[in-house]
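Project outcomes to date are best conveyed with an example. Our students and postdoctoral researchers have been running inverse folding experiments weekly, and each run begins with a structure described purely in tokens. The record below, which covers 72 residues, was selected by the lab manager from last quarter's runs and is presented without edits.
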């Protein structure tokens, strides 16, 4: 589902996949308090969190979050 949206939003949204258990990602997981997965953190262009979705997320819900981010 995410990969399909990644193709659809190519050039407008950057999708970043993060292994929360990798030591190299500790600063990011700490900054955004990522303690479980899956979690989708939608950020604005300045890196500020807009919304956060946990666990299984329906495509329509993730799409809606992305559209809100692009509209704002």
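After processing, the design step wrote out the following sequence:
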């Amino acid at each position: 589902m995410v990969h399909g949206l990644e193709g659809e939003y190519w050039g407008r949204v950057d999708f970043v996949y993060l292994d929360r258990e990798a030591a190299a990602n500790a600063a990011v997981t700490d900054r955004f308090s990522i303690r479980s997965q899956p979690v989708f953190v939608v950020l604005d262009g300045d890196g500020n969190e807009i919304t956060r979705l946990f666990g299984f997320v329906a495509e329509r819900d993730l799409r809606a979050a992305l559209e809100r981010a692009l509209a704002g």
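The beta strands are 39-43, 49-54. The chain has a mean pLDDT of 93. The training component of this project remains on track.
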